[in-house]
C-alpha cells in the first residue's frame, strides 16, 4: 500500500510542477508576445497577423491551467457562508454535495467540449492562419476531466472523513 501511496505522491508532485511550469511559461510568453506586438506596431508600423489570436489562446490556456491548479488546492471560487457559522463536521455534508455537483458539471462540460473538438476536426477549423483548431482547444476537455477527477477526490475524501472520522484522521498527513 505504501508503494501505491508513494507513486501517487510522486505523480501529484510532478503534476503540480508541470502545472506551475506551464503557467509560468505561458504567462511569460503571453507578456513577451503582447509587448513585442505593441513595440512592432508603434515603432515599425508592423505586426504579426497571428499574434493577437495567439495572445487570446494564451489567456484561455492560462485560465484553464489555473482552474486546474485551483481545484487541486481546493482554492477555487466558492461561495462559502455555511462553514463560518457551523462546526466543521457539519459543514462536510454541504461540501460533499457541492463537490459532487462540481464534478458532475465538469464532466458534462468536458463531454460537450469533446464534442466541439470532434466538430472542429470534422470541419477542418483552423486558427493562427493554418494551424488545426482542435490542437489549440484540446486543453479544454482535458482540463475539465482533470477538474472533475479532483472534485471527485475531494468528495470522496469528505465522505470518508464524515462517515469514518477515525480512519480518515489516521491517514491524513
Task: Summarize this structure briefly.
The protein is mostly helical and 173 residues long. The protein has helices at residues 2-44, 51-72, 88-122, 133-137, 139-163, 165-171, and strands at 126-127, 131-132. It folds into 2 domains: 1-77; 79-173.
Which whole number gives the mean pLDDT? Answer: 86
Give the neighbour order of strands across the main sheet.
1-2
Q: Which word captures the global form?
A: elongated
> Order of SSEs, N→C?
HHHEEHHH
- The number of domains is 2
- The tally of helices reads 6
Which structural class is indicated by helix and strand composition? mainly alpha
Uncertain parts? none
Helix content: over 70%
Span between N and C termini? 15 Å
Any key phrases for this structure?
173 residues, mainly alpha, 2 domains, two-stranded antiparallel sheet, 2 strands, elongated
Amino acid at each position: 500500500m505504501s508503494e501505491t501511496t508513494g507513486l501517487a505522491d510522486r505523480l501529484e508532485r510532478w503534476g503540480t510542477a508541470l502545472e506551475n511550469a506551464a503557467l509560468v511559461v505561458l504567462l511569460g510568453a503571453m507578456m513577451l508576445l503582447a509587448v513585442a506586438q505593441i513595440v512592432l506596431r508603434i515603432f515599425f508600423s508592423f505586426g504579426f497577423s497571428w499574434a493577437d489570436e495567439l495572445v487570446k489562446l494564451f489567456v484561455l490556456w492560462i485560465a484553464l491551467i489555473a482552474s486546474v491548479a485551483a481545484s487541486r488546492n481546493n482554492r477555487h471560487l466558492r461561495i462559502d457562508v455555511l462553514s463560518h457559522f457551523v462546526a466543521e463536521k457539519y459543514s462536510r455534508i454541504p461540501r460533499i454535495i457541492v463537490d459532487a455537483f462540481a464534478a458532475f458539471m465538469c464532466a458534462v462540460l468536458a463531454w460537450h467540449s469533446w464534442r466541439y473538438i470532434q466538430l472542429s476536426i470534422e470541419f477542418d477549423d483552423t486558427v493562427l492562419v493554418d494551424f488545426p483548431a482542435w490542437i489549440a482547444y484540446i486543453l479544454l476537455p482535458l482540463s475539465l476531466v482533470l477538474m472533475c477527477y479532483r472534485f471527485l477526490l475531494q468528495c470522496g475524501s469528505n465522505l470518508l472523513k464524515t462517515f469514518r472520522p477515525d480512519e480518515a484522521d489516521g491517514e491524513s498527513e
